[in-house]
Amino acid sequence: MKALTVSLALAAGLLLQAPAAADTLLIERVQAAQGKTLPARGQSMAQVEKAFGAPQQKFPPVAGPGDHRHNPPITRWVYPEFTVYFEHNHVVNAVLNKAHQAEIGPKPIE
Fold it and tell me: Residue span of the signal peptide, if any (predicted)?
């Protein structure tokens, strides 16, 4: 019984230490993102293109089902370091791109 308790304690200690490297990477990326200038909410497509240049990719608008008032068209522009989302012609959000496909997060920058 004592050996089982010791084994469980060691396993718990190892599990608590395992994600530290990934957490540090995410924290560093979030901190780096805070210093970056991204398109601001409300800017027009023309203002974004003037300030940041032409995007690498422009995806066509996608609208939800029903009328455009409740499901407006959303357009996505992809730059090397970030992606911008537009509702009609204005920025609704800009987020940093992932460093690799397996990465989770960071949260959108507002």
Answer: 1-22
